[in-house]
Amino acid sequence: MAEWLTAKVVENKQWNDRLHSLRVETDFPTFKAGQFTRLALEIDGEMVSRPFSLVNAPDESPLDFYFIEVPDGVLSSKLANMQAGDDIWVAPKAAGLLTVDQLPAAKHLYLVATGTGVGPFLSIAKTSLVWDLFEKVVLVHAVRYKDELAYPETIAEIQANHQDDFIYVPMVSREACDFALSGRIPQAIEDGRLEHRTGLNITPEDSQFMLCGNPAMVQDTMALLIEERGLKKHSRREPGHISIEKYW
């Protein structure tokens, strides 16, 4: 297998001054929703690569990567300036275990993300498997400012296709927003606002959580769910209720 696939940029969608969706065309093999691959560019004679989650569903094209431009970032600053027609390298396979096929059975699935961590969950929500496995799917997306709530058309389409089964909960922490919850995800769980918003109770019997994004959110949310709600971390050897992705 080749070390890298040659890909062509078809769109660089800019959501705000730092957030981008890079869409690229290449002959990419089958993957599972929730997985990631690597993007690479040759910079100063060296191949520089980073992992990025696939936002598109496995049967969709082009490949879609949601990322934030990091100040002085070696690769992200280059990606942010790419234009349609530019060439880029893509790793020839996907990896990662943040997929619904490895989850124990439950009624409700919570896809909980901060920032660009929402990417793999959009991929999951666009597939049929997740709706076959769970009665309700809750997407929680926490950001600092409301202009960071990207992919509104995608979320609206998911809502239209699964009106009775999909619950979208935006959270905005640094400005007033009348349609979103305020504060951090752990706080909204601890004080009951998330359950009030969704109309669902978080219990070991009914709930599965997938967490992706800021490491502090992931760790704090997991600790709260374990200590106060009786959930436990999931692994293949010891099935539980909480699956996590270490995003950086």
UniProtKB/TrEMBL annotation:
One GO MF term attached to the UniProt entry: nucleotide binding
Cofactor dependency: FAD
Domain of life: Bacteria
Enzyme class of the recorded protein, top EC level: oxidoreductase
GO biological process: cellular response to oxidative stress; heme catabolic process
Pfam family, one: NAD_binding_1
EC number assigned by the record: 1.18.1.2
Keywords: FAD, Flavoprotein, NADP, Nucleotide-binding, Oxidoreductase
Keyword NADP: yes
FAD-binding FR-type domain ranges (all copies): 2-101
Protein's UniProt keywords contain Lipid biosynthesis: no
Chemical reaction(s) catalysed: 2 reduced [2Fe-2S]-[ferredoxin] + NADP(+) + H(+) = 2 oxidized [2Fe-2S]-[ferredoxin] + NADPH
Similarity annotation: Belongs to the ferredoxin--NADP reductase type 1 family.
Protein name: ferredoxin--NADP(+) reductase
Source species taxonomy: Bacteria, Pseudomonadati, Pseudomonadota, Gammaproteobacteria, Thiotrichales
